[in-house]
Design a protein that fits this description.
The protein has 314 residues and is mainly α. It has helices at residues 2-15, 23-39, 44-72, 74-88, 95-106, 110-121, 130-156, 161-177, 191-200, 202-215, 218-228, 235-248, 284-313. The chain has two domains: 2-200 and 283-313, no CATH class; 202-282, no CATH class. The protein is 71% helix and 0% strand. The longest helix has 30 residues, at 284-313. The radius of gyration is 21 Å and the shape is globular.
């Protein structure tokens, strides 16, 4: 049932992608905002209570409906699974940004590419050159694919899969919504959401990196993962981007240590920069390579899931 649910949800999403501003997501965002306004009194314990309220309100009903559907009819359970996977997956939810950037760069319209990237990443892209635009688009696509597809896949395979998939997507959103906005960056309220999502995403992030390595350049992906992943402030992001960059043969990211200068007085060259990640500079062609890497990784996940489902049926 798990394999069929994911397959049907993917097929439906290819036909009718779910918009990022759909009513369900809007309601969840409003709920998270209201909880933050009501519970944020400046302490981490308030964030912990708020996190459990939001996650509980969304996951408990999902689990109860799944249990009821399975009691009534397995077909009802299958339909509920397909609905939840469709709502939590985001394989094509942000692909229009990526496609627009790719087409703009191919047409030589750098201004349009900067505009689309700014809308997608919510950053200032003024003055960015083509390699930087390409690099950021590749990075954004790899992270978005992991958090909107592969992370959901992993948790959907757990017992009471629909509730676990909802838990993953909600916890990922809360980790961002309660930490990334400028007015929340120094707030203790979002600490618990960040810590919980770190552990929730610990294994899925590494499985995504393994998938990228298997379907890409394995040796370079593993080398970059082992030697450069810890140079990012966000550990999961460092693992995914270093492995993804190695698999693609592209130099990704702006690790914290990249701009550091060796300050050891005993060093021969005090101005020597720390060795940068190997790989070629990102180009518009790299965006097409990302599409191939993601599709191959997706097919690998589906193949493994099909084998696992077949083994269970036997």
């Amino acid at each position: 049932m798990t394999f069929i649910s994911i397959l049907l949800a993917l097929l439906i999403e290819q036909i009718k992608p779910l918009r990022a501003d759909n009513p369900v997501y809007t309601q969840i965002q409003q709920l998270a905002h209201k909880i933050e306004e009501s519970f944020n009194a400046g302490a981490a314990k308030h964030g912990r209570l708020g996190w459990w309220i939001v996650v509980g309100v969304l996951t408990v009903p999902t689990a109860l409906i799944y249990w009821l559907c399975m009691k009534l009819n397995p077909l009802a359970g299958l339909l509920w699974n397909v609905f939840i996977v469709y709502m939590t997956l985001g394989f094509r939810r942000y692909s229009h940004y990526f496609t627009s950037i790719q087409l703009a760069l191919s047409a030589g319209d750098d201004d349009a590419a900067r505009r689309h990237l700014a809308e997608w990443a919510h950053i200032d892209t003024t003055g960015m050159d083509v390699p930087e635009i390409s690099r950021l688009a590749v990075e954004r696509s790899l992270i978005a694919t992991h958090r909107n597809v592969f992370g959901v896949f992993f948790w959907f395979l757990m017992p009471v899969g629909p509730a676990c998939a909802v838990m993953y997507r909600v916890s990922e959103y809360l980790a961002r919504a309660w930490s990334e906005p400028e007015h929340m960056r120094n707030e203790a309220f979002g600490e618990y959401a960040r810590k919980v999502f770190y552990w929730i995403d610990w294994l899925p992030a590494r499985l995504t990196a393994v998938a990228f390595a298997i379907v890409g350049n394995f040796e370079d992906a593993v080398y970059s993962w082992r030697n450069y992943a810890d140079r990012w402030k966000d550990e999961a992001m460092g693992i995914i981007l270093s492995a993804g960059g190695g698999a693609l043969g592209v130099r990704l990211g702006e690790p914290e240590e990249k701009a550091l200068i060796i300050s050891d007085p005993d060093a021969e060259d005090e101005n020597a920069e720390i060795e940068s990640q190997p790989g070629a500079e990102a180009t518009p062609r790299s965006l097409q390579s990302v599409v191939g890497l993601v599709w191959r990784a997706l097919l690998l996940w589906m193949l493994m899931l099909a084998i696992l489902s077949f083994a269970v049926w036997l």
